[in-house]
Design goal:
By secondary structure, the chain is of the alpha/beta class. It is built from 15 helices and 14 strands. Strands 5-4-3-2-1-6-8-7 form an 8-stranded mixed beta sheet, sandwiched between helices. A hairpin with a 4-residue loop joins strand 4 and strand 5. The protein is globular. The protein starts with a strand and ends with a helix. Bound molecules: adenosine-5'-diphosphate. The site of adenosine-5'-diphosphate has 17 residues, from helix 10 and helix 12.
Length: 400
């Protein structure tokens, strides 16, 4: 049984085609990244060993899904004879509010829930839905399954998900912390336990998911205790284009200074802030900012330090929340690939029991691994996330 997983995100669409009958073996996969920018690119690999990289013209998630489907049946590099071999499609969906906490078959009711959450997940739910609707058009009659990012965080205790606001905002309007990247936090925290040679029930892990969007979670006994994103994916860390934590009074100050209404300030904080706004070089890509910093750009240096400092503060806070720690795990685009950023985040944390081994940290690898010094009381891991595998497994379990 072939399951296709589509992860239509804020700046990239990842895809993997799994043969679930063959034990969940990935047949092909890849990503289209920097969508909407001038230098959009596609990477495609298959189980025959083909690795293709090309510049492509893709302006949104819908165009990306079409390109992916063409590639899967490509006479030379494809892995399927016909698109009819695809029996189910698992979609990463970011926000399901409080009503969707498990994987679900997507019907009109579920699409309405996804649409209802547009206002609180403006960067993600719209491309997620475009991805779903593109799949409905390209793969008619195939079951589409939604695997929601909010699900793993459903175990948070009330003291972690409530805000210091009048209680009726929660009871009547569901204003609370939900958390995101749940599929990744679930997968990486389980992998961290495996790397430690322990059961998830027996370990305390902080997962730093640092991609274009970023969030941190505190996981104890395999269950999420707290996470940095909130009602929306805007709270918490400084991200590619999102501001993360702010003094709420800044919101109405910006509205006055820039002459913006509510939608305007929403757009400003979601799309013009974060690394893009701080570094000021017209890019939200950490690679570009690191490169400019290496050429001596001082504003970029400050942006990198500010980004790292926010992560460091969360690690300290979550060590307190968990009352101890076995492992900090770094994952996603930045967490897996930027040794510089990991070093900057962990600088000065030796006294808390987090000692990095610089040589191990600098080694590139796609394997889960420890990068801590041998005498570090707390382990430091780099664990490639595999949201696609997790989504494929949940999709298969639901439709088979
Ligand atoms: P998302 O899924 O949220 O769009 P990803 O997890 O794909 O994001 O991560 C994208 C981010 O990872 C980009 O900002 C990019 O700069 C960063 N990234 C990828 N590779 C590297 C690298 N080698 N060094 C630094 N940053 C990297």
């Amino acid at each position: 049984m072939i399951v296709l997983v589509i992860n239509a995100g804020s700046s990239s669409v990842k895809f993997t085609c799994f043969d679930m009958a063959g034990g969940g073996k990935p047949l092909a996969g890849g990503l289209i990244e920097r969508i909407g920018l001038d230098d959009t690119s596609m990477k495609y690999t298959n189980h025959k060993g083909d690795v293709l990289k090309s510049k492509v013209a893709v302006k949104d998630a819908q165009e990306a899904v079409k390109l992916i489907s063409d590639k899967l049946v490509d006479p030379q590099h494809g892995v399927l004879k016909s698109l009819s071999e695809v029996k189910a499609i698992g979609h990463r969906v970011v926000h399901g509010g409080e009503s969707v906490t498990d994987p679900v078959i997507i019907d009109e009711k579920v699409k309405a829930i996804i649409r209802d959450c547009f206002s609180i997940a403006p960067l993600h739910n719209p491309p997620n839905l475009i991805g779903i609707e593109a799949c409905e058009a390209v793969f008619p009659g195939v079951a589409n399954v939604g695997v929601f990012d909010t699900a793993f965080h459903a175990t948070m205790p009330a003291h972690a998900y409530l805000y210091g606001l009048p209680y009726d905002l929660y009871t009547e309007h569901k204003i609370r912390r939900y958390g995101f990247h749940g599929t990744s936090h679930a997968y990486v925290s389980r992998q961290a336990a495996a790397l430690l040679g322990a059961k998830p029930e027996d370990v305390k892990v902080i997962v730093c998911h640092l991609g274009n969007g970023g969030s941190i979670s505190a996981v104890s006994g395999g269950k999420c205790q707290d996470t940095s994103m909130g009602l929306t994916p805007l709270e918490g860390l400084i991200m590619g284009t999102r501001c993360g934590d702010l003094d709420p009074a800044i919101v109405w100050n910006i509205m006055k200074i820039k002459g913006l209404d509510a939608n305007g300030v929403d757009n400003y904080l979601n799309k013009k802030s974060g690394l893009l706004g701080l570094a000021g070089i017209g890019s939200s890509d950490l690679r570009d900012i690191e490169e400019a910093h290496n050429k001596g750009n001082q504003q970029c240096r400050q942006a990198l330090e500010t980004y790292a400092y926010r992560i460091k503060k969360y690690i300290g806070a979550y060590m307190a929340a968990l009352g101890g720690l076995d492992c900090v795990a770094f994952t996603a685009g930045v967490g897996e690939n930027s040794a510089t950023m990991r070093e900057l985040v962990l600088k000065g944390l030796d006294g808390l029991g987090l000692k990095l081994d610089k040589a191990k940290n600098d080694l590139r690898s796609s394997e889960p691994r420890f990068v801590n010094a041998s005498d570090s009381p707390i382990k430091i891991a780099v664990i490639p996330t595999d949201e696609e595998q997790e989504i494929a497994g949940q999709t298969y379990a639901l439709v088979k």
